[in-house]
Structure formats: structure tokens, C-alpha cells
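Quick start: what a row looks like.
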Amino acid sequence: MKVRLCETVYREPINGAIDKALGIRMSLAGNLKTISFADILQLLSAGKKTGVLQIGDANRSKAVAFREGVIIFASSLNSSEDMLGALLLKRGQLSKDDLERAIVLHKQSGRPLGETLVDMKVFTNDDVAECLKMQIEEIVYNLFSWPEGEFDFKDGEAPKDAPFLLELPTMSVIMEGMRRIDEWVEIQKVIPKDDVLMRMVNMPQTDSEAISLTIDEFCLLPLINGERTTPQVIDMSPIGEFPSYRALYKLIVSGYVEGAGMATNVSVTGMENEEEVVLGIIFQLYNNCFYKIRQVVDEVFGKGSVPSAKFGKYATSPDYASIASYFPGFEFGADGSPAFDRFYAAVVKIPAPIRLHSLMSSLETMLTDQLELVFRFVGSQQYRNAVSRVKKEISEPLAARRELVKRYQIDENFYTALHRAERIVKSAIG
């Protein structure tokens, strides 16, 4: 039986056991404008469905997996690996050095990041499971606030790249999600505007001498220093977005936290602009370098030649496929024209706490590998030629905003890549 509800199409389940025996699959697709996320969950729970619900719009994409109507996993457009690393960093449970080592080992072994961290004895299985559970819950609860978005339920499909499965009773999730929506209405009435700095009240007016705080509120207090706005505090919080807003709301209502005036030197808009400028410098710097490296190879073999095409294939290996496409300098016959908008849109999807670290680490490796490829393809003399051209290309991007280059150590990261390539070449020459 087919039932149409506005623009949403679904087949009402007759009986879970009969459906399974007959191989009947449930069709459920549409837009959240016509049916709420809570109603979708209720349908899947009542039908005891197994499969993956995909929801997305132009900028976001999430997936929620079910088994017999129970939520067992959820993922976001940002890879679960990046989200796990970001969460552990924010909670102070993982250093950047350990995360970098774990990411390298994870890529080499192909094992999930969580398992790699356990192998390194940085965490126990229980530690990783706790963080992943928190991550999955936040992804699911965030969907309750989506006013629109295309969704499609893939009946019988299993979740992809799921390092950890749990069981979240769907009806309990619906109740909690709706409760959060109601609570959010009250929170918005109290939380100040995004450009207001937050600080602790020197002499809070309380009914008792003892100050009683929840664990969430206690976790948030060290971040409230009069120099951060609400979005900055929430972004740095180790307890998730909604719990952080709820904790800040209670701290304000209880009289422990107050506004400290408008942010002048650093506003939310200013921060976003600064990050865009930094990413623009990084993009121009590395794109120029990749383009000059490619020029050296094309000059030796000729554009369109088999060796040149082979070099391009190695340079855009699967390891770099996700980021290489944003650099015209990687493409055969490209003129190096900027494609910054696509690059920026992709980079900002990386969780903020590890965004620049993850990006710079990848670009360093890519540049090192490119120079090593030049040496192996055309010899040490042309390798020196490529390095010389690369060094000439960096002066303009690095001089554009010297204070930002120094603050974000862009030049240091770049020279690290050159030194690494030099060590590899010297080792190969013997």
C-alpha cells in the first residue's frame, strides 16, 4: 500500500516479519518542510525498520542508521574520524602531536582512528566509545532543529565506515529531541548576541553561600574569561553544542555569568574574515608551488606527453583526491587560475579545533611528495630547479599579511615540507 503525505512518499508497513519474508522495502523520501524529523523517527520506529536515513541540504549532510527501528549510528558530512579527533582535542584528552601520529598510523593501517588510539594506548575502548556515543547523539539531536532538508531512507542498507555501533531507543530520542526544542526557545531569550563578550560575575547574588554547579556548568566556566563571545565559548566547549548553550543559560539565569560589553578587536565576523584571509594565503602559496612544479615536468617531457600525464596521475593519487581537485596547479594543462571558493567551502567543513592543523599537515605531505616525484621522474638537477621556482613563488603570499603568516606559522610549515623533501632526496642519492 502506498500513502502520499504532501511531498513525502512512504509505504505503510503491514507487518515487520511479513515485509521481511516477502522482501518488501519501505520507501520514504521527501523534505523536512512537509514532515518533521520526529515524525520520520516515529515511522521508522513503529515499522521496526533497518536501514540508513540520509538528510541534507546544499551545505550539510547527515546519515542516521537503524536496526529494527533502533538508532545504532549517525554520521555527518565531516568524516567521523575528524569529528572524533576534534572532540578529544576539545575535551583535553588528546594532544595535537598524538592526534597527528594517530592519523598517520590510521592512514597507513586502514584501521579506524578510534582503534588506532587504543592501539597506541592513548585511550581505552571505553574512552573512545564514550566520545563516539556523545558525537552520535549530538548529530541526531541537531536534526530536530532543521526546518528543511531533503531526506531519503535506504531500506536494508548498512552504515558505512561505522567504527562503533550503539543502541539509542528511538522513542526516547524523540522525547529528548522535542524537549530540547522547547528548551531552546527559552535559552534564546537569555543568551546575548553573538558579538557580546561573556565574563564571570565578581560578587554573584545567591540565596546561599555555597555555589552549586552541574558538571556541564563547571566544564564551561574556565572558558568564560571576559575575552570570548558566546560562539567562541561554545566552539571551545568539550561537552557538545546544546549542553553548552544550556549550561551557559543556567549560569546567566543563576547570576554567575554576565555580558562584558561588545567585542571590538575580535568579533565573530572578524574571526571569520581572518580565517578566510589565512586560508587564502595558504591556498595561493601552495597552488603557486604545485603549478611551478608541474611546469618543470611539462618543460622536460612536453605538455600532453605520456610521462607528463603519468606524473599527473601520481601527483593526484587517491591519498590526495579529496583536496587535490581544488588546486588548479595539480591539473594537467591548467593555467593555475584560482578556485579558492570551492577550496574554502571544503576546508571549513573540517571541525574547527583541528582545521588548520589537519589542512597544513596534508599540504606539507603533498608538497614533499610532489618534489620527491620530480626527483624520481626527471633527476636531481630538475629537482633543484623545481625547489628554486617554488621558493621564488612564496615571497608574495608570505609577504601579503606578515603578522598572520607568523601567528599561524604558515612559513614554518612550508619550510618543513622543503626540508623533508631535501632529506628524502639526499637519502635516495646516498
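That is the whole record. The CA atoms of residues 246 and 316 lie 45 Å apart. Residues 1-24, 78-82, 266-272, 332-338 have pLDDT under 50 and may be disordered.
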